[in-house]
Design goal:
about 600 residues, eight-stranded parallel beta barrel, alpha/beta
Length: about 600
């Protein structure tokens, strides 16, 4: 049997989820009304129910994020929400807080969130034994590390392939909590990693001034999908539950094209995880949608330059340079790019990104609000392409599921192989025998062989022994009725198997193990104690500890500055608005640590 590869898309809301499915997503993930790890992206269960109904037409799935840590007073609310989501027929929950494993849950499928920071075979084995069907792996992994996790477990593996990246191991960053009392593990991250800092050594010497030293480029692994599949990844995840509709459309359509190519070249090894083929629509281009520059992170086992530089705020694609400043508010550009009224432009001035709108464009002369900070030679970036945005909005592909039709005068059978559905429509009314059977057959094939709802009908056979004449209006009615019958067939969702219990004690070997568990309530505490964990401490959000690690990461400022392996005056520190963060370099493990 071929392995089904899933393209998993983000959805801020129901409409974006539907747009992602229309552009080829095999599944979408979305937050419910609470505990979704994005304060600005909650959705009522009623909307999720509508999204589920639409997704299931294509055999696509809907996963709901319930991936914040839970406080004691929230456990009952969380359990009630799970029951509501199960009734809404969502396909799985993505969770961080392991207290849910101690609750009396309905048989809903559970996925361990990337917030669990799964980066070792030991963690993966423990979570599999706990009852998770799928593990969402840490983003800072290499293909070789993924392979080792695959060899240690039998559950499904999911991996991010595109979008924004946490600079540290996911779920293990307490920087936002420390600086602002807003917990990333509670969906309230202030994105302190995108802020600017001064970098000083132990003598107080300034090494870098006012730079986004912790800001990482966006992930892009479209050229590695085949390698990831070969190492055991079955779900390829796009980040972006706060992104807008056109971003999701563009990126999903691009990865759908790439994944279809991987599947086509696999000689039957892989197949799609849902049904339907895209027809028409825009041509995607991930280079002109929001990004901070792209990186492949650690996928090859090597580090390139990860820092986003000035692009910590979206810079856009470089399209030209300033050739001449004219008056107070016009520029002449060189490079041949076609700029349209309403395009968003950006310039880097003294390491700051300045954004302006192209108000009036006349060939290579562009009217903007103010050109006083610009000079000849300044690079011109476009961070909003109005023509492309309109194309995304107005030229959406149509997703259709193929259906085979077997036609006879007694009834019509419709077979949808990709969804495992069949419908039979008896023809009860008597129609006259066709005087010209050939013309009648052509009429049947023409009228039935069209689309209706989300189905693309193709007449596979006609009983030529008894050909009748059917008015085109009748045949069109047959096709629409078959489409409604197929849509009414219930979707068979997968339910969670009974958990057999954990049989081994987890081997926590990570250097930050005292805070690794994010234990925030009595149920999660019971879970870990049953494992034999003895170094259990409450989550940072409950008990802040002096001198503890605020962040551990494979990203390294020394590496970015070209000082890896060279003698430096340690410790270094990051300074911002009077706050001081100490840096430690764990060169043995090739990691950087941010502490108080």
């Amino acid at each position: 049997m071929p392995v089904a590869l899933e393209l998993l898309a983000p959805a801020k809301n129901k409409d974006i989820g539907i747009a992602a499915i229309d552009c080829g997503a095999d599944a979408v993930y979305i937050a419910g009304p609470a505990f979704g790890a994005r304060e600005a992206a909650g959705n009522p269960v009623s909307d999720i129910r509508e999204l589920v109904s639409y997704a299931h037409l294509f055999g696509a799935k809907v996963y709901v994020t319930l991936n914040t840590i839970l406080f004691e007073t929230e456990l009952a609310q969380a359990q009630n929400l799970v029951n509501e989501l199960f009734d809404a027929e969502v396909d799985a929950l993505i969770v961080q807080d392991l207290s849910l494993l101690e609750m009396n849950l309905p048989p809903i499928e559970l996925h361990a969130s990337t917030q669990c920071a799964i980066r070792t075979p030991e963690q993966a084995k423990m979570l599999e034994q706990a009852g998770f069907k799928r593990l969402v792996l840490e983003r800072h992994l290499s293909l070789d590390e993924i392979k080792k996790i695959r060899e240690a477990t039998n559950c499904e593996l999911e991996f991010f392939v595109h979008g924004a990246v946490c600079v540290c191991y996911s779920g293990r960053c307490y920087l936002s909590s420390y600086l602002a009392g807003r917990s990333a593990n509670r969906g309230a991250c202030i994105q302190a990693c995108r802020s600017k800092y001064d970098l000083v050594d132990s003598s107080g010497k300034i090494i870098a001034r006012n730079e986004a030293l912790l800001s990482v480029k966006d992930l892009r692994l479209d050229s590695h999908l085949g390698n990831l599949a070969d190492e055991g990844i079955v779900s390829f995840k796009i980040e972006g539950r706060l992104k807008n509709k056109t971003y999701v459309q563009n990126i999903v359509r691009h990865y759908r094209n790439v994944m279809d190519g991987v599947i086509a070249a696999s000689d039957g090894k892989y197949c799609k995880a849902s049904a339907g083929t895209l027809h028409g629509g825009f041509s995607p281009n991930p280079d002109i949608t929001f990004n901070r520059g792209y990186t492949t992170l650690y996928i090859s086992g090597r580090k390139d330059k990860w820092n986003s530089g000035a692009a910590s705020a979206y810079l856009g694609e470089k399209i030209a340079t300033v050739k001449e400043c004219i008056g107070a508010n016009r520029i002449r550009i060189s490079g041949g790019a076609q700029v349209a009224n309403g395009d968003g432009l950006a310039f880097v001035i003294n390491k700051e990104v300045i954004g302006m709108r192209a108000d009036v464009c006349n060939g290579d002369i562009i009217t903007i609000k103010d050109n006083s900070a610009l000079k000849p030679g300044t690079a011109v970036y476009r961070n909003f392409n109005s023509a492309f945005e309109k194309e995304l909005e107005n030229n959406v592909p149509r997703r259709l599921v193929d259906v085979r039709v077997q036609f006879s005068s007694k009834g019509i059978k419709a077979i949808c192989d990709d969804l495992g559905k069949e419908a039979y429509l008896p023809i009860k009314q008597e129609f006259p025998k066709a005087e010209k059977s050939g013309a009648a057959i052509v009429g049947i094939m023409k009228s039935i062989g069209k689309s209706a709802l989300c189905y693309n009908f193709r007449v596979e056979s006609i009983d030529e022994e008894d050909v009748r004449f059917y008015p085109a209006s009748v045949l069109n009615g047959f096709r629409r009725e078959l489409a409604e019958m197929l849509s009414a067939i219930p979707y068979q969702r997968r339910l969670r198997e009974a958990v057999k219990g954990i049989k081994s004690v987890c081997d926590w070997t990570q250097p930050d193990d005292t805070r690794l568990l994010n234990c925030s309530n009595s149920l999660s505490e019971n879970f870990y104690k049953e494992l034999g964990v003895t170094n259990l401490r409450p989550a940072y959000e409950i008990e802040q500890g002096g001198g503890m690690e605020l962040m551990r990461t494979r990203y390294c400022i020394r590496k970015e500055l070209g000082l890896c392996g060279k003698k430096i005056n340690e410790p270094w520190a990051l300074l911002n608005n009077g706050r001081r963060l100490t840096l430690k370099f764990d060169c043995r493990n090739c990691e950087m640590v941010v502490t108080l």
